[in-house]
Amino acid sequence: MEILKTELNIGLEAPVRILQVSDSHMSTCDERDSAKALEKSAKKTKGFLDLSGGIKQEDNFLEALKLSEDCDALVFTGDVIDCPSDANIEFLESTLEGRKYLYTFGNHDYYTYDSDCGKAEDRDSFLDQFLRFIPGDPTMDSMEVGGLNLVALDDSLAQFSEMQLAFLKAELEKGLPTLLFLHLPFYSDSFADESWKWWESVMSVGAPVEVLEKYGETDPKMKASETTKAVMKLIEESECVKAIFASHLHFKDETEVLGKPQFINEPCFMGSVREIIVK
């Protein structure tokens, strides 16, 4: 497995090691699913296997979990499953049982093969199934380890809510050095062209209107709401936020956004995770 290594020096008393895992895209369906879902599951599983050189998404995920046992914290930044089938949910529940971790949604965690989409109502309808085994709230959660505050926010719909804004304010008021974990990255020119080439979308939060127009972005949710802009301003102005970690694009990128370093993961289904060492 490829381990992307990131080291941050912020003056902690002792080093903290964090494993970030994202985009495993496990795509299993079974007899409980519709014919349409089974057909799409077979097609997508074949596509992921072709990209990974024949290694199953589940096997890469299990290897990532093994690596996490030597770390102080484990954070999942979305699209851990490709659809919320019973088989995928049960697999997560069985493999994550008894572990301590942060988990934030990606757009595929609640993307159904029957509807071919993932909307706010889909996320809400599947939330209870995830809450059966996730120790926190996958829409907003935090974990303190070694004097460091890890904050995960669900931005899988490319926006932040008023509740998330209030949550982040409260977390930053703790005064601890903070790492922010998201699914979608904040927009940067550094990845825009490649993102458009791959996805025909800027695939990020907070892209300027002129950028959306330049690329002919048709997804209406990509235009930042006032609340989303308020979250971005809070991050930019906070001395507590030391770095941002995201995923979603399926390729890596490192740049500065909102005055903070931002690191974007490669997908776990391709055998990649990120080890973050904070000193």
What structural keywords apply?
279 residues, five-stranded mixed beta sheet, 11 strands
SSE layout and pairings?
Elements: E1 2-8, E2 16-21, H1 35-52, H2 57-68, E3 73-77, H3 86-96, E4 102-104, H4 120-131, E5 140-145, E6 148-153, H5 162-172, E7 178-181, H6 189-199, H7 209-215, H8 226-237, E8 241-246, E9 253-257, E10 260-264, E11 272-278
Parallel strand pairs: 1-11, 2-3, 3-4, 6-7, 7-8, 8-10
Antiparallel strand pairs: 2-11, 5-6, 9-10
Largest sheet: 6 strands, mixed
Biggest sheet, strands in spatial order? 5-6-7-8-10-9
Catalogue the unreliable spans: none
User: Gyration radius, to the nearest Å?
Assistant: 18 Å
Order of helices and strands: EEHHEHEHEEHEHHHEEEE
The count of helical stretches stands at 8
Shape summary: globular
Percent strand equals 15-25%
The percentage helix is: 25-40%
What is the average per-residue confidence, as pLDDT, rounded to a whole number? 96
